[in-house]
Design a protein that fits this description.
9-stranded mixed β-sheet; 34% strand; mainly beta
């Protein structure tokens, strides 16, 4: 479903059952997977890769170098950048840094993601956070600059590790293990 006010340039690849809502612009060369939703006023640059079942809320711009894996959620007004020190009079396209958001991660409303970082699987970036370093799998970060505030399960519930680093999702019962500052799902 592409709304009549949206602009999808030739050469853009849009997966089945993906919704592109009011006043969006998807450039040629962008790839968006199946079953996604892009809210009002979104922009997707050439070269951006978006997986399947991704939700991008209103007024989010995905600039060249951004990759969103499957089942990522991006809250309204979140900001992605691709150059560390932009100047209007100096072209820095050769300095673009790739930004990757891995499977199942959440980016909260109005969060800012600086270029060159990786947001780990099922990580959770709180609303308004400024992310300037990589975020680990299942890590919950908040603040300016964003710092670790805890851990989140795949379901999106807070994990509280015991003294041996074991945690259980209160919603699903899934088990997790924290070792050396890295949280992992126990399979």
């Amino acid at each position: 479903m592409i709304h009549e006010s949206a602009v999808v340039d030739p050469g853009a690849r849009i997966g089945a059952r993906t919704a592109i809502w009011h006043f969006c612009h998807v450039m040629g060369g962008a790839e968006i997977g199946a079953d996604c939703s892009f809210g009002q006023g979104c922009f997707v640059a050439a070269g951006v890769r978006v997986g399947a079942r991704v939700r991008v809320q209103n007024h989010v711009s995905l600039f060249e170098g951004v990759t969103l894996a499957d089942e990522v959620f991006v809250g309204p007004g979140a900001v992605f950048t691709n150059v560390m020190n932009p100047r209007a009079q100096i072209s820095r396209r050769h300095e673009y840094r790739p930004t990757r958001v891995l499977h199942g991660a959440t980016i909260g409303a109005n969060a800012t993601i600086l270029p060159g970082v990786t947001i780990g699987e099922h990580a959770f970036v709180a609303a308004g956070a400024l992310v300037r370093r990589d975020v680990g799998a299942f890590e919950l970060v908040a603040g300016v600059p964003a710092t670790r505030r805890g851990w989140m399960s795949r379901h999106g519930a807070r994990l509280v590790p015991d003294e041996e680093g074991r945690a259980r999702c209160p919603a699903t019962g899934e088990r997790y293990q924290l070792e050396g500052g890295v949280m992992a799902l126990v399979r």
